[in-house]
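ok new one. same drill as before - structure tokens go in, u give me an amino acid for every spot. 151 of them this time. try not to just spam alanines like last time pls lmao
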């Protein structure tokens, strides 16, 4: 039995639906990458895991050095909230929406290029995501290696 610290329904903020598809193990600190990698491994190990759209900080933020003392606000709050809103508006999702994460990821993959054009400009990680593609540790494409959804 796994002893991961994640709940049955994991929480992801809007723009992290894209980040989880691209994450390859790099990040802001050792603690951040340890947590993010464990979350991605949990997602791969639990294909039917549910996700709840978080209004602000989520399972990834909680180990981030940019998370403020209130455990909700990011040091780059304006920027990340704009990215969250852009993703949710395009997908028609709202904070609190619960759905199977795999279905959500496949829906995001199906319009990845369009979403990245709306959500990702100005992000320091964008060149790496474009170079590596949507084959992150948590990506359905990492599991199947299918190119069906690659735009
Ligand atoms: S930079 Fe901000 S939005 Fe990104 S993981 Fe850290 S706290 Fe969360």
């Amino acid at each position: 039995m796994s002893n991961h610290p994640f709940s049955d329904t994991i929480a992801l903020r809007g723009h992290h639906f894209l980040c989880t598809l691209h994450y390859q193990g790099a990040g802001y600190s050792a603690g951040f990458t340890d947590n993010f990698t464990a979350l991605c491994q949990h997602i791969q190990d639990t294909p039917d895991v549910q996700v709840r759209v978080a209004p602000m900080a989520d399972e990834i933020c909680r180990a981030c050095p940019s998370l403020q003392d209130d455990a909700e606000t990011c040091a780059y709050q304006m920027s990340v909230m704009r990215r969250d809103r852009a993703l949710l508006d395009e997908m028609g999702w709202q904070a609190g929406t619960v759905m199977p994460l795999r279905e959500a990821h496949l829906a995001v993959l199906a319009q990845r290029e369009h979403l990245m054009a709306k959500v990702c400009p100005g992000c320091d990680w964008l060149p790496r995501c474009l170079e590596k593609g949507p084959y992150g540790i948590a990506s359905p494409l990492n599991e199947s290696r299918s190119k069906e959804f690659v735009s």
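The chain has seven helices and three strands. and btw Helices lie at 16-22, 30-45, 77-91, 101-110, 112-119, 126-132, 140-144.
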